[in-house]
TrEMBL record:
This is CoA transferase. Keywords: Transferase. Residues 1-20 have a biased composition (Basic residues). Residues 1-60, 111-131 are annotated as: Disordered. GO terms for molecular function: CoA-transferase activity. Residues 21-34 have a biased composition (Basic and acidic residues). PANTHER family: SUCCINATE--HYDROXYMETHYLGLUTARATE COA-TRANSFERASE. It holds the Pfam family CoA_transf_3.
């Protein structure tokens, strides 16, 4: 993550977003004064009608008053700005009707296409399951940046918002003339958050990437799998979601920096570097001990690289492709596990009496533990072991999470939003809960161009005739 700060203090902003003085050399805006100035929207939002819950409205939450001109697409950018939208920011997603955001065209679609690669029986850009997950709580506009009139609308929107986000292939924003120096000519306190596979500096900054490629380049794929086997990936686009949280953190740091100093910032996030940060002890082993990542006994699959932890692994449970994870760290935990297993004869083997002995004979120990777990329900094994202080967890699939897991249900991890096209659907929420605030999940993802009239008309001041003409001519 890289930052480049603006050099001028932020001109003070009144309650309606107008600049009121402020030049080079002025003192930064005090925290309490600046905070009061940004917690209002630029225009009084339209109060929603009783039967129209999709009308833009005053948002609530810790990020209420933050406004974002969001060029992000796919996952790594869209998930980052979703977090801001979840907690009250007015995130305005910018799309082009001539080139739809890829997740609008990807399954899974509710009740129809069930997997990637299947043909959509009823093409509709508002059905895409990934898009509807990534873009909840956001506003949506369409604009053609190739048309000078569309570009003018976007520049006005950037001035209105003061925060710009993007994760296009390297060079796209440059071709549009939307670099940080140019954006600072529009607003000198602008925050420009850029997200790419390799970052925007260095010899590979121009390389393109997707999630699986990022996993490979960052070392995650190479360090996954079993000894003697080829590297194993982590799923389709694991790093899209993981790097997104670094993007969110970078944005929040930039917003806080501006609150304290009045300065804008360019934030440059590399998804590859985010992946490197997930390598953990294995990377440290290479840096400190010069040991290779893949060797005869490593990676160890489900085992922990720990001198006293055994048994440690994932073991079969009753049913097809059902598993339970168990980790024993101490002699006391080992004795407790033996008691739950009703003290089988093999557990009395003196080789298993100490942690060192259990680690030395881990393969044989795993076979014995697996013979006990194989006939048991994975959740029951988890509950029985947790009750006596042994760390254990059922290996859960998506259906387990949504229909079985009582802890997930109790915390309200999944919540429902109604959508005009796909109807009611469930989405996963933010994994942290705060006592004095909560996500403002007010609307499902925007329909294509749904908020053009509100954003271009009510926020940017274009009249209805102008908007009708721009729509007819394909500009919006």
């Amino acid at each position: 993550m890289r930052y480049r700060n603006g050099c001028r203090a932020h001109p003070r902003v009144d309650r309606r977003g107008r600049r009121s003085g402020g030049h080079e050399g002025v003192d930064p805006v005090p925290h309490d004064e600046y905070d009061a100035s940004v917690t209002q929207t630029t225009h009084d939002p339209i109060a929603p009608d009783a039967g129209d819950s999709r009308r833009p409205r005053l948002r609530t939450g810790p990020l209420s008053g933050v406004k974002v001109a969001d060029f992000c697409w796919m996952g790594v950018g869209a998930v980052a700005t979703r977090l801001l939208a979840d907690f009250g920011a007015e995130v305005i997603k910018i799309e082009n009707r001539k080139r739809l955001d890829t997740p609008r065209r990807l399954p899974i679609y509710k009740g129809e296409v069930r997997s990637y690669g299947d043909e959509d029986p009823n093409p509709d850009p508002d059905k895409g399951g990934l898009f509807n997950n990534y873009s909840r709580n956001k506003l949506g506009i369409t604009v053609d940046m190739a048309d000078p009139r569309g570009r003018e609308l976007v520049l006005d929107l950037i001035e209105h918002c003061g925060i710009v986000t993007e994760n296009f292939a390297p060079g796209v924003m440059e071709r549009w003339g939307l670099t940080y120096p140019e954006l600072r000519k529009i607003r000198d306190d602008v925050i420009f958050a850029r997200m790419s596979g390799y970052g925007h500096t260095g010899p590979q900054a121009h390389y393109r990437s997707y999630g699986p490629v990022v996993q490979a380049v960052s070392g995650l794929s190479f360090n996954s799998g079993l000894p003697g086997r080829e590297p194993s990936g982590w799923g389709l686009s694991y790093m899209d979601n993981q790097a997104a949280y670094y993007n969110s953190a970078g944005l929040l740091l930039a917003i806080y920096h501006r609150m304290l100093t009045g300065e804008g910032t360019e934030v440059d996030v590399s998804a590859v570097e985010a992946g490197v940060g997930l390598l953990g002890a294995d990377l440290l082993d290479t840096l400190v001990n010069d040991r290779p990542s893949r060797r005869e006994d490593f990676p160890r699959g489900n085992r922990l690289e720990h001198p006293e932890c055994a048994p440690h692994g994932v073991y079969p449970a009753r049913g097809e492709d059902e598993w339970v994870a168990i980790a024993v760290f101490t002699d006391e935990e080992w004795k407790a596990l033996c008691a739950v297993m009703d003290h089988p004869a093999w557990a009395q083997d003196p080789r298993f009496a100490t942690a060192a002995g259990r680690v030395a004979h881990h393969d044989e120990l795993d076979g014995h533990v697996a013979s006990w777990t194989a006939d048991r329900d994975k959740h029951q094994t988890m509950h029985d072991l947790q009750a006596i202080g042994v760390i254990a967890g059922a290996v859960q699939n998506s259906r387990d999470l949504s229909e079985v897991d009582a802890q997930i249900a109790a915390r309200g991890t999944f919540f429902e939003l109604d959508h005009p096209v796909i109807g009611a659907a469930q989405f996963e929420g933010f994994p942290a809960q705060m006592s004095e605030s909560s996500p403002d999940n007010w609307r499902s993802a925007p329909l294509l161009g749904e908020d053009n009239a509100y954003v271009f008309g009510e926020l940017l001041g274009r009249d209805a005739d102008t908007l009708a003409r721009l729509a007819e001519e394909g500009v919006i």
